[in-house]
Design a protein that fits this description.
The complex is a heterodimer. By secondary structure, chain A is an all-beta fold. Chain A is built from no helices and eleven strands. In chain A, the strands form two sheets. In chain A, strands 2, 4, 5, 6, 9, 10 and 11 form a seven-stranded mixed β-sheet that branches. In chain A, a hairpin with an 8-residue loop joins strand 9 (87-94) and strand 10. Chain B is mostly beta strands. Chain B starts with 9 loop residues before the first strand and ends with a strand. Classes of the chains: A mainly beta, B mainly beta. Chain A binds chain B through residues 2, 4, 33, 35, 39-43, 45, 48, 55-56, 58, 90, 92, 97-107, and chain B through 3-6, 31-32, 34, 36, 42-46, 49, 89, 93-94, 96-104.
Chain lengths: 113, 111
């Protein structure tokens, strides 16, 4: 167990809908990361937060947004969902958020039908 | 019909043999490198990391080698066990904090 908690584990929804994925980092970690893993793209970095502020941005679509709250948990919001958004979404956390090991959660499997 | 997916390099070894998984990275400015193991249905699990001021680092049954000249990283697993069967990812990071993952290698250990 990495100490990173993600909910829900599975999510099935329809195209055009909006969903929210939730992540609680390891105790003491200030930085949260979101990654998308699909069969044809591998692990793609989406976005990173450090202590409530956005620190780095990757290949995140405009339909997607995230935030980190004062208690350090994070949410990833996916809207206007398309079939191609079906993937595993991982949250990871680290202590300082700069070139150190990340601890990953178990992921949320999103299926858009 | 044939499914389109990520065609991972694969490595098949016998139990007890040593395994070597290779990774080429792209950014010469990267100064931090890390190996992860991902088992089916689970999130990536940290194995070992190395910074650019080192060329070798050892852990329990694992060794990471870094060759900055040719931008190459390798993971050596000693006495490979069936429980080592998984997809192994290398990742690199530089000053932009973003950890970029490689495509992964599927390791299969035959008993």
């Amino acid at each position: 167990d990495s100490g990173v908690t993600q909910t829900p584990k599975h999510l099935i929804t329809a195209t055009g809908q909006r969903v929210t994925l939730r992540c609680s980092p390891r105790s003491g970690d200030l930085s949260v990361y979101w990654y998308q893993q699909s069969l044809d793209q591998g692990l793609q970095f989406l976005i990173q937060y450090y202590n409530g502020e956005e620190r780095a941005k990757g290949n995140i679509l405009e339909r997607f947004s995230a935030q980190q709250f004062p208690d350090l948990h994070s949410e990833l919001n996916l809207s206007s969902l398309e079939l191609g958004d079906s993937a595993l979404y991982f949250c990871a956390s680290s202590v300082q958020g700069s070139n150190e090991k990340l601890f990953f959660g178990s992921g949320t499997q999103l299926s858009v039908l | 019909g044939e499914s389109v997916g990520l065609h991972l390099p694969t490595l098949s070894v016998q139990e007890g043999d040593n395994s070597i998984i290779n990774c080429a990275y792209s950014n010469s400015a990267s100064d931090y490198f890390i190996w992860y193991k991902q088992e089916s249905g689970k999130g990536p699990q940290f194995i070992i990391d190395i910074r650019s001021n080192m060329d070798k680092r050892q852990g329990q049954r694992v060794t990471v080698l870094l060759n900055k000249t040719v931008k190459h990283l390798s993971l050596q697993i000693a006495a490979t066990q069936p429980g080592d069967s998984a997809v192994y990812f290398c990742a690199e990071a530089g000053s932009n904090y973003k950890l970029t993952f490689g495509k992964g290698t599927l390791l299969t250990v035959n008993p």
